[in-house]
Amino acid sequence: MIPKSNRPGRAVGLLLLAALLTGAATACDGPSAAGPRPAAGHATADPTDMPLPARVPVTPVGASPTAWQLPMDAYQYTPAQSAKLQAAVYSLANSCMRGLGYSADLPTRLRTGPDHNAFRYGPVTNAQAAQGYRWVLRKAAPAGAGTPNPTREEYGALLGKSARGRNGRPVPKGGCFGSAHRALDSRGGRVDLPDVIRAIADNSYALSQRTSQVQSVFHAWSVCMRQAGYRYPDPTAPAHDATLVGAASSGTGPVPAASPREVAVARADVACKSRVGVLPVWSSVERTLQTEAAARHAAELAPVPAAIARTMRNATDALDSGALPAV
Q: pTM for this one?
């Protein structure tokens, strides 16, 4: 590695690599997982092919959010697959960087993030409420030696901004990250999944909140919260209350503990959701929206499970050998 004086700021480096990895695993998470989710009732794409249902049958949901399943879950990388895929990107990039004359220590042991739907509807158990509203956790934080903190020169090789490496060899198109992605995309793999998957997942979350069924149960939740001493219009509001949550940190650092007041609000939130039946109604409406949208986009979605399986086999090969056959 180049001396520290020539490194970009640590925070800048970590954030940029986090952004790269987010791109490396497009559709690895829905609005439920770590990362921004649409504001209440705000769709992220043209929702004209997702008409709002008049009324849907309500299906009970289990007490554990880890058991919840929505139709789009089948077309996304699981959190464990996402962590493994990101580790494979780093492993391949390390091999590429060594071939260009750099030392390489991007971490290849990554911690698995929360399940897709763990916080989709905010805290739903007292165990979650103990965290308040600070579930914007990194999906795949380093869990071993090596830190994604390259030097400026190494950035050039990783991103394809440099023509040649330290040893004079040409940098591949898109840099070592581009080379890694192409390797994982080989033989029918597909790192970047179709945009329609994320659009459906995001839009169902947002559009469900416009239905009369969900709005009715939201109103009941708001009344319950007001009786507990808290004024919020709907269950998405507490997480966006800056006076409650403040500025929670992001990236790879530890997330500050929730304040006693934040935990108290979250516990009241959980109790009110249970009392008025928010979760069965909201998830049933979302499930209907996603099922109907999936049927309309069947041709685009059909190849995805096989592409995910192929990509994960490529990732396994990469982690086992540190390289894949040239494509």
A: 0.80
